[in-house]
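User: My collaborator sent over this chain with a note saying "see what the structure looks like." That's all I know about it. Can you take a look?
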Amino acid sequence: MVFVCYVSVCISSDTFGLYTHMSHPKSQLQIVVEEAAAKLVAMFFRAFPHRTTLRLGSILAVLIHDLLHIRVDVALDNLKHAYPDSTLKWRRRTVRRVYSHFGAVAAELARIPVLASGSFDRWAVVHGRTVELLDKAVASGKGGFVVSGHLGNWEVMGAWAAWKGYPITYVVAQQSNPLIEELLDYHRRSAGVEIIKRSDAARGILDALKRNRIIAILLDQDARKDGVFVPFFGREASTFRGVATYALKRCPNVMTMETWREKDGRIHCEFEEVKVPNTGDREKDTHTLVADLTSRLETYIRRHPEQWLWLHRRWKTRPENVR
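Assistant: Without extra context I'll predict from the sequence alone. Here is the result:
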């Protein structure tokens, strides 16, 4: 039961950044129980070899899928819109594989302190211009942005970069469970990652750029009424404009990051450089850059649809409902 609690907390709540507002405060009992479960299972996952841990996480998550069906209907609906020619059988199989993948992600989150002790290079693989682009951002003195989504394992690759000595800063949502939030931040900081809470992002991002840091942001969540509407899998999606705002003002380096898991359990990563538009029309350039970043993320997700968080209500905010 403790295992089910831990993985269901990771998959169904805001542990993977599903919510940015805490509209339903948790009771103190629930907060304490979730923290106890998370700590206990994290200790358990750190006691086994890495590959065994990934299998255990996947099995537990599939069990939760089969028994509890948390957000399965949301995922099936998202897949139906994104892949209109797909069969129901394919969509159901994909959702089950999504659960399996994110069960492994939950296990990896618990093991970041172990990986940071010396085994990151065994389980994290970089491709293409990744190292070159990170070096270029640091050498520029302007800092930079790495834009990604809930695909593959963004946490592991960000922690790998920090472990390698790059000045990585995460912008993260606050959790409805403050004790879980402390635990997650401990895991991130164990690899050298700096944390900025989304509630402090306006000031924190500016300060981080002044210190020549590389800021990692996930751009695949519903931004509600304050977002920019851009195409994503054939539908307009409200998307955060923050990266574009700072990029256009301060001209830092902008990169996207694709991460994916291979069958051997290793997480692979490749960075792409993004050209920041500069027509002089700030609103137009903001829309162009956000659309470009979102389009790249869609391309990455289409390569590995079973590794993206279809459980999120990504298209919840509709353009016609925003005034």
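A starting point for your reply to your collaborator: Confidence is low (pLDDT under 50) at residues 17-23.
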